[in-house]
Amino acid sequence: MSAYTLTKTRFREGVWTGLLVAKQADAAPPEINVTLRDQSVKGVTVTATAEAGRYAVEIPVPIEALGDGVQTFLICDANADVVLESFTLMAGEALGEDIRAEVELLRAELDMLKRAFRRHCLETM
Fold it and tell me: What is the pTM of this model?
């Protein structure tokens, strides 16, 4: 079990930002490891804030993560070997097919509801 909790605060301009908070005041200094496809992500920063036991975490998205498909980043507490948080990027053709399939399913369900509603209105007249 980790001595920290991590909460996303924003994801903007290719940088995922979060707040790392110690569960106990005497927690060991944090060691954060971020991986993408079992490779460590470089450039991760963990900076102490003005409040004790709170740290700002910044994770830059590497250029090699941008492309077709789904990319999942795992943010781990290296001391406890526990996943604190994760985030996923989806892009390209794989995403387009998923969205098109979902829209088609929603349209079919909407058409079914419209037919059922019209039938109900005709039967109640």
Answer: 0.74
